[in-house]
Amino acid sequence: MDEREYNMAEEVKVFSTWASPFALRVIWALKLKGVEFDTVHEDLINKSPLLLQYNPIHKKVPVLVHDGKVICESLVILEYIDETWKQNPLLPEDPHQKANARFWAKFGDDKVMQSIGGGVLLKEGKEQEEGFAASMENLKYLEDEIRGKKFFGGETIGLADIALGWLAHYLDIVEEIVGLKLIDQEKFPSLAAWKQEFANAPIIRENWPDRDKLATKYVAMREANLGKGTPK
Amino acid sequence: MASDQVTLLDLWASPFGMRVRLALAEKGVKYEYSEQDLMNKGALLLQMNPVHKKIPVLVHNGKPVCESLIIVQYIDEVWKDKAPFLPSDPYQRAQSRFWADFVDKKIYDFGRKIWMEKGEDQEAAKKGFIDSLKLLEGELGDKPYFGGETIGYVDIALVPFYTWFYAYETIGNFSIEAECPKLIGYCKRCLKKETVSKSLEDPKKVYDFVVMLRKKYGIE
């Protein structure tokens, strides 16, 4: 292409880490919409000056930079992506359905992730039992919501699917580490079916982080958390 | 729109509920206010918000919308011909969403710790709270409102918490105005607007409510 065309081409960058389920949401959304982008791989132990400049408040990934405009917080980024690149919409037009999608995305982050990550992976004994019970309660709500639908977004992947998508891969690893089954086929048949559908969907299936690397990381996180406060 | 049925399930002292009241007032929407007893949750609340069993819940023509910021966005999208809360540019919208999310993550959590905790935990919460308000002051800059010339999404997310500042200050034994005069100036400016003053509760009444809560939770 000639110089003018090159300068008019959009510049889209995603700051991410290999393990982050939040950054993965942004990568999925851009790929589902066919948007070209570059990935800047961050090391959270050694954050780049650019990341700290772009996200001084939270100092986290993901960060999206689109033609010099910086956006932080994965769910905020997803809405920006959906409003900027209108092909393959992630949100429906109807305000009530839109509110519903946002509700389940938020539920995933506020409750599901907390109960499974904080309550099950990082705990043991009685605390883990409580975390497990809370997780099961939360998964039941998801089961009721997904029943009769292929995706939370209906026939196609939507905002809630992308926000909850970590359940279709990261959860397996957690279950193996703690020896507990959370998305049990018998207890949550619709959610188990969604998990399969989503994990194997085009684009989604090509971008999962390495299972063994994740397992190593999560085992280390669990041990570090359990090691706190116990006499050595 | 003339036959819209709008009900708000709410608790008078809730800053989250006040967000919705303010949003509805800005749009000039007529609605039925239904005060909820959270110690004895009614059938309607449990039916309309079975997942969280919390207020606020907006019921619009029989269908519920839950979570205050989700409700505020819904109101903006349904009653779109008046007083838009979000700008039309996607990047500006993203900035507004970021800062409203910041209010949720920081102001509420630190504020809660100020009235629930003691000693070091309370001191840490006070510092976090003031640091967060200062970041908000930076974002406000020279604008009259976060929304620019008119009240917007971030203003609606933030200003109800002003009604809890007196409680935080009295219980935490500090002055928010001394640390963040610009932000307090901003809140007082907002209160000059009728939609804001009629949607927000009296800080002294809120303080009495918080005192009652502390007694109930055995914090002294």
Automatic annotation (TrEMBL), chain A:
The EC number of this protein is 2.5.1.18
Q: Which GO terms describe its cellular component?
A: cytoplasm
> What is any one GO biological process for this UniProt entry?
glutathione metabolic process
The GST C-terminal domain sits at 94-218
Does the keyword section mention Transmembrane helix? no
Membrane keyword on record:
no
Q: Which reaction does it catalyse?
A: RX + glutathione = an S-substituted glutathione + a halide anion + H(+)
Specify the GST N-terminal domain's residue ranges.
Answer: 10-89
Gene Ontology molecular function: any one: glutathione transferase activity
Q: What keywords sit in the KW lines?
A: Transferase
The family classification in the record reads:
Belongs to the GST superfamily.
Question: What is the protein name given in its UniProt record?
Answer: glutathione transferase
**Species for this entry:** Salix brachista
From TrEMBL, chain B:
**EC class of the enzyme, as a word:** transferase
Pfam families, per the entry: GST_C_2, GST_N
User: Per UniProt, what is one GO molecular function of this protein?
Assistant: glutathione transferase activity
The record's CDD domains line, in alphabetical order, gives: GST_C_Tau (cd03185), GST_N_Tau (cd03058)
Q: Which residues form the GST N-terminal domain?
A: 4-83
Q: Where is each GST C-terminal domain found?
A: 89-219
What GO cellular component entries does it have? cytosol
**InterPro entries recorded:** Glutathione-S-Trfase_C-like (IPR010987), Glutathione-S-Trfase_C_sf (IPR036282), Glutathione_S-Trfase (IPR040079), Glutathione_S-Trfase_N (IPR004045), GST_C_Tau (IPR045074), Omega/Tau-like (IPR045073), Thioredoxin-like_sf (IPR036249)
**SUPFAM superfamilies documented for this protein:** GST C-terminal domain-like, Thioredoxin-like
> What is the stated purpose of this protein?
Is involved in the conjugation of reduced glutathione to a wide number of exogenous and endogenous hydrophobic electrophiles.
Record organism: Salix brachista
What PANTHER family would the database entry show? Answer: GLUTATHIONE S-TRANSFERASE U19 (PTHR11260:SF781), GLUTATHIONE S-TRANSFERASE, GST, SUPERFAMILY, GST DOMAIN CONTAINING (PTHR11260)
Q: Does the keyword Transferase apply?
A: yes
Its BP terms in the Gene Ontology are:
glutathione metabolic process
**Subcellular localization(s) per the UniProt record:** Cytoplasm, Cytosol
What is this enzyme's catalytic activity, as reactions? RX + glutathione = an S-substituted glutathione + a halide anion + H(+)
What's the protein name? Glutathione S-transferase
E.C. number(s) listed in UniProt: 2.5.1.18
Grouped into one coarse class, the protein's main location is: cytoplasm
